[in-house]
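Please go through this chain and its backbone structure tokens and walk me through the local backbone shapes. Keep your notes short.
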Amino acid sequence: MGFMIKFENLAMVAHTIVSRIVVWRFVKFIHWDYMDQKMNVYIWDMDETLILLKSLINGTYAEAFNGSKNVQTGVEIGKMWEDHILQICDDHFFYEQVENCNMPYLDVMKQYDDGRDLTDYDFSKDGFGPPCDDLNKRKLAYRHRSIEQKYKKGLHSILDQDMIKSWRELSDVTDSYTDMWFSAAKACLEQCAVGNRDLASSSSSAVATNDTIFQHVNILVTSGSLIPSLVKCLLFRLGDLIPSENVYSSWEVGKLQCFSWIKERFSGPNVQFCVIGDGWEECEAAESMRWPFVKIDPRPSSYHRFPGLTPKELGHYFSVVYGESDSKDNDRLAPSGS
């Protein structure tokens, strides 16, 4: 599928480029006095954590319920989601063209983007393909910029009404089948991100009086390819909670490398990290970084799953590594009655 562009030693290419970009992203994102403000960075896995897909398609999600859920219904739901993801990727996000050019995040090609106006640019006729020279890297950067713009606008700006209706119906069916897993995961992200709204609305006088202000950031690090992962964020209504610049693909570089970039991007004495996922790779990477790790398990008897997981519980994991004050800080994010 698509043009075959060989990015030799992609990990080295990404590693070289990221060193030039990380400072730009860091300065763009962070503007606070570390002595007065704290940041909690939540690093989420995608599949079988924020969403269920593989376990629906292979039937393992339903089988864990010992007959109370219809396996075939779950398989059909999963395949419908898979069809939607692939269709949107190919029709609107250049996936056929860039499938073999996976990058760890969108900004990694930014140095090749000359800022050209893409309003009337014809992506189907620009000759994008091998060799992997600066010209084609620029064309890839154009595609990444276009994808970023579409991501910010959301799917309602590109899908027709029939597709939107089908999407809504599938979302409702899925939530019903999974006992509100998807809605509960989104609600947890919203509660984790509430600190951003507090920070945005805080007056300068509050900072001047040395009141501590807490910022909470959601990051996605997925082992899947970048473009389908971005589309998943939009389809599962996570785009407003995880901006495109916070989506990382560990497909080639591994999760430990992504975590290292994130630590460099959000470095500071009052920045704390917590990893939430279901797999061994993110668990080992979190251990290597000495960050707390929360293990998600879709089985109905598991301790951490959706619905169930809350920012208050995540705060307890923060407190194990960073001290008791974090548990109290995260209590402020929990809705009343939690």
Summary: The chain has 15 helices and five strands. Strands lie at 37-44, 213-222, 247-249, 271-277, 293-295. Confidence is low (pLDDT under 50) at residues 1-13, 19-35, 196-210, 334-338.
